[in-house]
Amino acid sequence: MKKLWILACVLLVLSLAACGKAPGDVTTDASTDTDDTSASAETDASVSTDAPTAEGLSYADLSDLTFTFSSGVGGWQTIMYMQADGSFTGEYFDSDMGVTGEGYPDGTVYVCTFSGQFAPLSRVDDLTYTTKVESISYVQPADTEEIQDGVRYVYTTAYGLDDAQTLYFYLPGTETANLSEACMSWVSIYLWTGVEGEHAKELPFVVLFNENAGTAFAGEVEG
């Protein structure tokens, strides 16, 4: 009888020990599952974060180009450089040593040093973008002049950017047949194939066309 009582006590102790251990095991597993789920959620959130990506043309793509407005005849030209934020700087220069007068026997120089800001680019199609000049300023006030060292300096506006309310960037690959006559009149000198009357079928460089003034800059990498 005593042996049976001892055996019953042993079984009772074992039963109580087993019951006490099970809840602990369940809690541990639940904690592990929660951690795994949390880690998985964090990983998924990191992977699926929607980061904006640049699409199409940006001013940064144009920042290594020199934009030149010139007829190819005479010594005049407007040179312009762009920055990645859409700002720009440039200079217009022309000279006429035959235009002399009292105090300026060495001729007349027309010059403009300018800087400004373009509006954000808007896409027209894969090879065409549009913008406008938001602001422009001049180192020397336009329509003023002075005489220095026998030369008359006449300060002007930025020739080629006059009334620049609608500007188009035409990218390489644009069919020249689709460009306006006004645009082609300025850039055709860069497109001659060597055969009289023939020009490249597609633009090999960027063109900046000022629709209102009918002027166009050729944008190429210097050197």
Explain this structure to me?
The protein is α+β, with helices and mostly antiparallel strands. The chain has two helices and twelve strands, in the order αββββββββββαββ. Strands 1, 2, 3, 4, 5, 6, 7, 8, 9, 10, 11 and 12 form a twelve-stranded mixed sheet that branches. 17% of the residues are buried. Residues 1-54 have low confidence and may be disordered.
What's a quick, concise take on this entry?
The protein is an alpha+beta fold and 223 residues long. The chain has helices spanning 2-47, 181-187, and strands at 66-69, 77-82, 87-96, 108-118, 122-125, 128-131, 133-138, 144-148, 151-155, 167-170, 206-210, 215-220. Strands 1, 2, 3, 4, 5, 6, 7, 8, 9, 10, 11 and 12 form a twelve-stranded mixed β-sheet that branches.
Features:
disordered N terminus; 223 residues; single chain; 12 strands; 24% helix; 12-stranded mixed sheet; globular; alpha+beta
Percent helix? 10-25%
- The total beta strand count reads 12
Main beta-sheet annotation: 12 strands, mixed
Rounded mean pLDDT is: 80
* Structural class computed from helices and strand pairing: alpha+beta
Distance, first to last CA:
110 Å
**Helix count, DSSP H or I runs of 4 or more residues:** 2
Q: What is the N-to-C order of secondary-structure elements (H for helix, E for strand)?
A: HEEEEEEEEEEHEE
Radius of gyration: 37 Å
Spans where pLDDT lies below 50 across 5 or more residues: 1-54
